[in-house]
């Protein structure tokens, strides 16, 4: 086989498998929130919505700006939404490829960089984030770019090297304005590299000073000019959300359980790497892994899988060394071909077992069944009014898919819901057929949370057959009658009519 074709296949096959495994049609509730802001909110650094929720939106301002730019080019609709989700998947795939070159720049021996890139692609978190427009997706890619530019700068002399460090700081600035914990991702890879791996320790420290000071200047400049500070939400999180949510109000599993789910079966390879802990590269991997995971697991009131994103590169590197340890063991007992087959087989089994973690991950909207339900109704009823109550997932998703339809929200939404139903009279005044769309409760809650509720003796919030769930002023109003007309998976559609005698 030609070497170039062989090299192409070594990358093409895992990337295609990664995209195939990652595409699930689901969205996270934060994701639809970002998408909705990017599509419909007036985008300005001084806009009111940017500064709401204790810096929640301002701390992700670059990610939302990126989405806004894509919608401005593509327009709003199902096709545009799909293209944006594909773009996010390519960001994760691109981060994996960039990580390969990062490790090559760190002078790690072959095949460790390739193994680490493949592990990165098939981690439960990477598969979850792909095709999701979450801020972590943008942050992970920009952080990989920042680290790569920083390392390239070490090998360039004079002004060119400094320019690369300035570009690295700019990429890190964009990453931290998507998710501020990108600082942790950067430092837990770069600092262990300087300590254990770098042949240019003095230059590396000098470059780190350049990157750090430039990042501070950029961050302070944006903060002083606009009031947007990437660190604001982290600092104010407890004060803003402590009064609203108890630590386990949604039944989140213990942080250590999520830490296990983060790597799933691939923890086997990560732990195997400890057999070679005397190697500097493994010290670098585990140093970064411990520093990136332990503070989050201890300090966070609850942890979702995506919160461990600062550990994604260090874990991939530790698992890559573990794969190499296992492969070398097999070489001592089997032929080279058989050793490779056994190693690949074990990796595939572990990746397949990790798919069992999918039901534990959060889903805001299941896109495929919701689109099927909407399309059936839109074909049979022209100019229908769809009323719903949840803004961050179902409502936002449907407005993104069908921006020209009459989709109404039963509550205020930062002034960003053009058609609101705030009392029964608002519904009565609307012409044409009227429908109420709602999700059934349990399937929107991750499986592990539901199991925990059951073990605690808490009843599931399951909607009773033919009982309408939603705001009391609608579902409890005698003026309305509700008739179930269709359902698809987790979603149920009711026709709203005015009761006789009203």
Write a compact overview of the structure shown.
With 502 residues, the chain is of the alpha/beta class. It has helices spanning 3-22, 29-40, 61-74, 78-105, 112-122, 124-129, 135-154, 158-176, 182-196, 201-226, 232-241, 255-263, 267-272, 280-299, 312-333, 336-354, 367-380, 391-401, 424-429, 447-455, 472-475; strands spanning 26-27, 365-366, 385-388, 406-409, 434-439, 480-488, 491-498.
Structural features, described:
It is built from 21 helices and 7 strands. It is 60% helix and 7% strand. It is globular and about 80 Å long. The protein has 502 residues and is of the alpha/beta class. The termini are far apart. Helix 7 packs antiparallel against helix 8 and helix 9 (182-196) packs antiparallel against helix 14 (280-299). The strands form 2 sheets. The protein has a 5-stranded mixed β-sheet. The chain has 2 domains: 15-360, no CATH class; 365-498, no CATH class.
Task: Offer a few descriptive terms.
7% strand, 502 residues, two-stranded antiparallel sheet, 5-stranded mixed beta sheet, single chain, alpha/beta
